[in-house]
Amino acid sequence: MRLLVHEYASARGAGLRPSILAEGRAMRDALCADLGGLTGVALRVSVSPALPPPPCGEPVPPRAGEDDIAFLLRAAAGVDAVWLVAPETDGIALAHARALAGAGIALLGCSVEAIALASSKSRLLARLAAAGLAVAPTWPLAAAPLALHPLWAAKPDRGCGCEGARRLPAAALAALRRGEASAGLIAQPWLAGEAMSLSLRIAGGDAELLSVNRQHIDVAADGALSLRGLTRCVEPPQRERLAALARRIAAAVPGLRGFVGVDFMLGEDGDATLLELNPRPTLAYAGLSARLGRNLAADFLADFAREACHA
After folding, report:
1. Domain 2-108 architecture
2. What pTM, to 2 d.p., does this model score?
């Protein structure tokens, strides 16, 4: 099988924060290390010459002046599938997935339709709420009922993780929404509890819970949120309930496939409130195969082959 790993940040390599580049490299290298241990895989990897190379695979660097989509399609020429890791921010992941689909190149992961839905937090949460799942109450910033809650989270509707997210009191949020920078932002009440995530393997509309992860979130003086790190494979007493939740998420969003990350708040009552979904490998993938004692890439490739046979 001829496979391209295209991780957006490490392929681009310029104009991004060092923390984003480090996370991108970690995901890219974890995917490559797992794939490099498999027989029958001819691996190609999109790489920026400004960064250290991946542990294995044929590197494909961008050309001078080449835009992101042109680079992706050139790197993907002749492969059987692309393992795409790109942020939902400003529709980047969706644009890349649509370009591959338009060129007739298979995605080793979620469908374009699932990526489109997950790229909008508000649309995704509305879908999950309609399926009876507990989600964070979400409004466009301009319509948020600020008097109902003293503390809020403001974040881009089309963003990923903590990027552009802030914790603000209601008065500060009111001032923010009077400014031009409020376009595209959503508001959610600040929820008490622990910031957590699920790492899922989804195939055939069913989900396997690979890992429950604790997110270590820092809050700056101006309210800006940042991910300081992850603790993978925690074992909360609610694990069976979270596994059932994962299956309900897979059923609620057709087209979810491969590695999927789900962010949620674990309340003091032990209940999970969903925040967002990443239709792609997340930072939690790095080191997860070793922790679980299995090559996750082998599992995802086997799922891909089975679904291709039944397509």
Report:
1. 3-Layer(aba) Sandwich (3.40)
2. 0.96
